[in-house]
Amino acid sequence: MKYFQIIIKRVLTIAFLNVVLFSLMQPVLADDDYIEARRLQDAGEILSLQVILGNIKSEYPGKVLEVELEKEEGDIVYEVEILGADGIVRELYINAKTGKILSVKEDD
Fold first, then answer.
1. Long-range contacts for 48-54 (Cβ within 8 Å, ≥24 apart)?
2. What is the pLDDT along the chain (108 residues), one digit of tens a residue?
3. Which residue of 29, 86, 92, 100 sits 20 to 30 Å from the alpha carbon of 13, by its own alpha carbon?
């Protein structure tokens, strides 16, 4: 019985440490994403987020809720989530190099 308690204690300790270490790594991963986006922008491979948002604000006014930079089918795409003035949340998929809106999805 004592051996079993020691094993359980070690397993729980390892699990706890994994959770703590992973949570500490999240800001590092976010920093890496920012660095990569900045590198791509400086190399002229993508437009800046400021340019992208400036291009879409007249057609899709509202509050920007979230922005992600993703690679989809070989293209780099900004995924911009906007809460429109009409109260509808939309996800816009925008080619990061050209600024062209690829698709718009309304969230339910």
1. 49/78, 51/99, 52/78, 52/80, 52/94, 52/96, 52/99, 53/80
2. 677 777 777 766 776 655 555 554 444 445 566 788 888 889 999 998 889 999 998 899 999 998 888 888 888 999 999 999 899 999 999 999 999 999 999 986
3. 29
Separation CA 99–CA 47 (nearest Å):
7
Structure letter (DSSP) for residue 87: S
- Residue 94 near residue 78, CB atoms below 8 Å: yes
pTM (two decimals): 0.67
Distances 47 to 8, 33, 37, 40 between C-alpha atoms, Å? 52, 15, 10, 9
Write the pLDDT tens digit of every residue in 73-87. Answer: 888 999 999 999 899
Q: Which fold has domain 46-108?
A: Nuclear Transport Factor 2; Chain: A, (3.10.450)
CA-closest candidate to residue 52, choices 105, 102, 104, 101: 101
